[in-house]
Amino acid sequence: MRIFYTLILLLIGQNAMAIEEPAFKIVLKTEAFEVRQYAPMLVAETLEDGSMDEASTKGFRKIAAYIFGNNRANPMNPAGTDAKIAMTAPVTLEPVSEKIAMTAPVTLSASQQGGDMASTNKWRVHFVMPSKYTLSNIPLPNSADVKLREIPGKLFAVHSFTGFNSVSRVQTKSDELLAWLQSKNFKPLSSVQLSRYDPPWTLPMFRRNEIMIEIEQ
Question: How many C-beta atoms surround the C-beta of residue 171 within 10 A?
Fold first, then answer.
């Protein structure tokens, strides 16, 4: 997995400032927690089975292949677009309940929402597409496993942390965010999401990781 991440990310350079990130406004900030209002976004996503690391590897490969050329022209855009799509950050991983439709927000209680990361075996992996794209002008995936989806503007609670994002550490940070939400009387509306911003060669103390949960407006 690390070798694949390295080869792909070397293609886009090591200047993280050049990589576009989703647009948001900070509504509330306290210590390691924030509430952010995100703008609408377009994502490329895939569903993967396996452990967190296994699903992350498989999902990254499929979506990276799509943005680096495994795509076709969008028939709604006669002028055409470049076959290669610029890389963005972060790469986001989210546990998925098989009992809930993929297109609907996953509305769970706080105790369910944290879940047991170690036993989760189905995940959604997504990249946010550059803001210049819409469903009418973005190249279409050749792989049936990669889907494009528009996400409306949403309010997210975010817990930022550095270091490695092992399953146990992600679980701990998820539980911390859920406890903070409960203390502030925020109502969670989604499962937890892990967002990772840095290539694997980044030193642990400089890595930017975030646990995100959609909350009620």
Answer: 19
